Amino acid sequence: MSLDFSILLKFADALALGLWMTLKLTVLCVVLGSTLGFLIGLARASENALIRVPASVFVEFFRGTPVLIQLFWIFFCLPLILGVELSNLASATIALTLYMGAITSETFRASLRAVGREQMDACTALGLPRRVQITNVILPQAVLLAVPTLLSNCISLFKESALVSAVGMADLMFIGQNISNNTARPVEVLTAVAFLYFVIAFPLTRLVTRVEGRMLRKLAA
Amino acid sequence: MNAMSRDTALVRITDLHKGYGPNIRVLRGLNIEMKPGERVVVIGPSGGGKSTLLRVVMGLEEIQGGAITFAGQPYISADGRKTRIDTEVRKKIGMVFQHYTLFPHLSVLQNLTLAPCKVVGEPRAKAEERGRAILARFGLEAKADAYPSQLSGGQKQRVAIARALMLDPQLMLFDEVTSALDPELVAEVEQVILNLAAQGMPMMMVTHDMWFARNVASRVIFCAGGVVVEDGPPEQVLGDPKEERTREFIDRVFHIKG
Ligand SMILES: Nc1ncnc2c1ncn2[C@@H]1O[C@H](COP(=O)(O)OP(=O)(O)O)[C@@H](O)[C@H]1O
Ligand SMILES: [Mg+2]
After folding, report:
1. Helix (H) or strand (E) holding B69
2. What whole-number distance in Å separates Cα of residue A157 and Cα of residue B54?
3. pLDDT at residue A220 greater than cutoff 80
4. Distance (Å, rounded) from C-alpha A29 to C-alpha A23?
5. What is the SS3 assignment for B125?
6. Which of A14, A174, A199, B134 has the fewest C-beta atoms under 10 angstroms from its C-beta?
7. Is residue B55 part of a domain?
8. What is the rounded CA–CA span in Å between residue A44 and residue B134?
9. Other Cβ atoms closer than 10 A to A82
10. What pLDDT score was predicted for residue B255?
């Protein structure tokens, strides 16, 4: 059997549609998930156990169970609990946002810790009120420190979002599998799909390396 | 109350006890009376609690016993297991640390204006004007918009001093501010401190540089074992110490320096 990549041309539109869906889902979940992760990261740094413990349980649960099962759970159980139909996009967004929130909360928590005690001593010596310490000194540094890891989190989410194809959502992976089944050309089609993922992810991984270097140099004051 | 208001000390430290956890006792009943206009250099063996002393005076640490007054006002006291710190008094004291603790995400000028704008509510334009003036005095006017990572260690430390001065402190604390610097950068920082001293700024500092100590101090205190061992004018404590422990320490330090 010889490889024939030309068959892909026929499906270019369908693949573009799938890629668009994957990108839309990723961007949505990156924005919502990082926001959620930021809040959970703060909650986990709280001195109040009533805030800290539920946040930790949430994170451990979502980090410790397979994403695929989380997706099934949201797709099939959540509508039953809520008693409303959810679109595929809504279900996938909820599921991956919760997952992304759990992952990025760890990123934020680590970067909050990395802003050293010396910075807080400097704040106290300058008489800065607690609120100013947090909003003007600790949080901006923590967010900057978190950027490289957050970018890595985004790349992982972009690739892991392919799992939503398993619950029938028409993302790039799902469409690729469909074309592959219909044409019986899995090698060409799946290679092309992988290439599409790579073309998006690769520049981002390069960016991470560059941003990381710059951040480290800038914050090493 | 009457006795308090007649207190002529700028800082009065009485029977100060401070440890870290139950097993590490650092300051064990330390007494110091610092008069207005004095420049006190604290010397002593490494791990002897010099940084701890300065951090306590800055109001950064809990204490287990004793009290500190500032210009006759109660400032810090041990109250059972709690430490009372008057944060209004604390604002009158500035501190520069060994490791430049500039805010790395803010420009030099923003480092200077953050506290005046946020603590005192000074208008930004006015704070920036004052900030630029202080930077110019320190030969750093060209660095106003630079970030800390773009500065040399000596420049960072001068910015840290400028930042503390923005709040018009009545006492400055310097904890080994030159010991993290490359040797060729030490002089520029010491010069800034000497200028401040010449202008009459009260200060308490820790340094291992005996030349600098002799030039800046109006008084030298040798601390060891968590108490004041010797206390007097620099010529005496550094040049002709009375106590055997002081003598040993001074000999050793000068010996190491060659
Ligand atoms: N945050 C801390 N926790 C526990 N021990 C500390 C802490 N800071 C200082 N120490 C200990 O207290 C003692 C005095 O330290 P320090 O005040 O830094 O001494 P110096 O500045 O004279 O070298 C040392 O034994 C040090 O290990
Ligand atoms: Mg020290």
Report:
1. strand B65-70
2. 49
3. no
4. 10
5. helix
6. A199
7. no
8. 41
9. 9
10. 64
C-alpha to C-alpha distance for B112 and B94, rounded to whole angstroms: 13
On chain B, the residues whose CB falls within 8 A of the CB of A132 are 114, 118-119
Residue A221 to residue B167, Cβ atoms within 8 A: no
Closest alpha carbon within chain A to B153: A221
Residue B131 within any structural domain of the chain: yes
Residues of B in contact with A126 (CB under 8 A): 94, 114-115, 119, 163-164, 167
* Ligand 1 touching residue B22 (CB < 6 A): no
Residue where the block lists tokens 């900057």: A144
Contact list, A118 vs chain B (CB under 8 Å): 97, 99, 101
So what's the ipTM on this one?
0.89
Helix or strand or coil: residue A6? coil
Question: Which ligand is in closest contact with the Cα of B42?
Answer: 1
| pLDDT of amino acid B258 | 43
Residue recorded with tokens 């500039």: B102
B155 falls within a domain: yes
Q: How many domains does chain B have?
A: 1
Examine residue B125 and state whether it is found in any structural domain, yes or no. Answer: yes
Contacts of A27 (CB under 8 A, 6+ apart): none
8 Å CB contact between A31 and A185: no
Say yes or no: A47 contacts chain B, CB-CB below 8 A. no
Best CA proximity match to B59, nearest among B31, B116, B18:
B18
| Contact present, A37 and A103 (Cβ < 8 Å) | yes
3-state secondary structure B194-205: HHHHHCCCCEEE
For the stretch A165-210, pLDDT in tens is: 998 888 999 999 999 999 988 898 999 999 999 999 999 888 888 8
CA distance A60 to A54: 10
- Tokens for B200? 């009459």
How far is residue A97's CA from residue B196's CA, in Å, rounded to a whole number?
56
The 10s digit of each residue's pLDDT in B200-227 is: 999 999 999 988 999 999 999 999 999 9
What's the length of chain A?
A: 221
Q: Do B149 and A119 touch (CB under 8 A)?
A: no
CA distance A118 to B240: 37
Residue B83 has pLDDT above 70, yes or no: yes
Nearest bound ligand to the CA of residue B52:
1
Instruction: State the residue range of the domain holding B121.
Output: 102-168
Nearest CA to ligand 1 atom 10: B20
DSSP codes, B62-97: --SEEEEEETTEEEEEEETTEEEE-HHHHTTEEEE-
Q: Within 13 Å and on the Cβ side, how many CA atoms surround B115?
A: 26
Tell me which residue has its CA closest to atom 21 in ligand 1.
Answer: B51
